[in-house]
Structure formats: C-alpha cells, structure tokens
Amino acid sequence: MLEASNNNELLPIPDKRYFTIGEVSELCLVKPHVLRYWEQEFPQLKPVKRRGNRRYYQRDDVLVIREIRELLYEQGFTIGGARQQLEAEDAPSGADPKVINAIIGELEEVLQILKH
Q1: Which of 24, 30, 57, 78 would give a disulfide with 47, using CB separation of 3.0 to 4.6 Å?
Q2: Model pTM?
Q3: Residue 68 contacts by C-beta under 8 Å, 6 or more apart in sequence?
Q4: CA atoms 60, 62, 65, 69: torsion sign
Q5: By residue range, what is the domain housing residue 22?
Q6: What is the Cα–Cα distance from 18 to 20, expressed in whole angstroms?
Q7: How deeply is 93 buried, as exposed, middle or buried, from its count of CB atoms within 10 A (0-12, 13-18, 19+)?
Q8: What is the CATH number of the domain that holds 80?
Q9: 39 and 46 Cβ atoms separated by less than 8 Å
Q10: pLDDT category, 47, cuts 50, 70, 90?
C-alpha cells in the first residue's frame, strides 16, 4: 500500500488508533464529501461509526484511501477500474507452495516414466 514515504506531498500518518474524517481529509488531501462517496464505492473502506453516526478511520483505512487516491488521481483509473485493482490485490495469490511443489514432483515422475 501507499506509504507517506512514497508520496512527498502527503503528511506522515500519526501513531494513533482512530482518525476523524477531517483528519483523514488532511492526511490524504481528499475532501470529506469525497471520502463519504468512496465509502459507497469501495467495499474495502469501512470506517467505524459511533456516536451520532460519526466516522472513525483506522490506519488501514487511511492507507486504503491513499491507495484509492493514487489509483484515481495519479494513475488515471476510473472508479470501476480502481475498484477492480483493489479487489485483485485482495484476492488470494494462488495455490499453496507445498501443493505446487508436490505437483512438480509428480510431473517429473511422469516425465521419467515417459522417457523409459
């Protein structure tokens, strides 16, 4: 995910547990109404809601917002394209390495049988 060190214009994320929508807006250089809209468009973005439906974002939420911002504003993705990109990153990365090694071993045995 996008860290502040990768993007000089964004402030470093303070070491605290929860952030208000105003704080996140400043940290990510995105207006609060845009953050509320992104919550509807990106299932990965789920801030905690407390007293009076107030939003409280955690560090992971801030990182997701920064990644969404990067995809939309810097890389030129559409909302749908950015959503697909984030979903692809969340998807499992394939089979277990042990399973792959077992399959390779079996294929090598079959190859040896075929050579004889």
Answers
A1: 57
A2: 0.70
A3: 38, 42, 45, 82, 86
A4: negative
A5: 4-115
A6: 7
A7: exposed
A8: 1.10.1660.10
A9: yes
A10: very high
